[in-house]
Amino acid sequence: MQWRNTPYRYGLVSMALHWGIALTVFSLFGLGLWMVELDYYSSWSHTAPALHKSIGLTLFALMLLRLLWRFVSPPPPPLNSYSRMTRLGATFGHALLYLGLFALMVSGYLISTADGRGIAVFGLFEVPASITSIPEQADLAGWIHEYLAWGLVVFASLHGLAALKHHFIDRDATLTRMLGRRAD
Q1: Domains of the chain in sequence order
Q2: CA angle 27, 13, 170 (to 5 degrees)
Q3: pLDDT value at residue 45
Q4: List of residues 6+ apart from 87 with CB closer than 8 A
Q5: What pLDDT does residue 182 have?
Q6: pLDDT, block means (10 residues), the chain with 184 residues
Q7: N or C: which end of the chain has fewer CB within 10 A?
Q8: Sign of the alpha-carbon dihedral angle for 160, 147, 75, 73
Q9: Which region holds residue 182: left if phi is over 0, alpha if psi is between -120 and 50, else beta?
Q10: How many CA atoms lie within 13 A of 24 on its CB side?
């Protein structure tokens, strides 16, 4: 298995980033749903949000790495069998996933730092609060964060269903390329 992408398949780094980020996004979504239902007296009422924030900031760093990696090791070109609309849909869909994820993480940062305190990352270091002057920042960012999270999870699920459609109905190499197999 190659580290870098080739014209025929994704490399190990791209695959690890893709599947790792997908798993992290869905895990953070589940953690977020669970933690907002905790009451103040739960032993997890402070631990779960701290964990959610630390993982979210780690995800932000991974997304920056993933974006950089796309320039260092460009993804394989679209398959010749794709129609013009499929190519446009894939380009638009991937851009929407990237933009949505970054907007989701920025809104999470704005919620967490609205009171002027930084965010401790696994107790190792702190990301400072740099924007604290937006009126009703925590409420507005919280609303955006919630709806973006739902939208991204739904859209990522549709993305996965589209890959399965390509694999089982179209019988093309879309999914197998992301699993490290060569597309001929």
Answers
A1: 12-178 (1.20.950)
A2: 80
A3: 94
A4: 78
A5: 73
A6: 91 97 98 95 95 98 98 94 94 97 98 97 97 94 98 97 95 89 70
A7: C
A8: negative
A9: beta
A10: 21
Structural tokens at position 94: 């991937």
Amino acid in position 167? H
63 SS3 class: helix
Closest among 105, 111, 19, 110 to 55, alpha carbons compared: 105
Contacts of 110 (CB under 8 A, 6+ apart): 131, 134, 137, 138, 141
Cβ atoms 107, 139 nearer than 8 A: no
Q: What per-residue string of b and e applies to 117-126 under the rule 16 or more CB within 10 Å gives b?
A: eebebeeeee
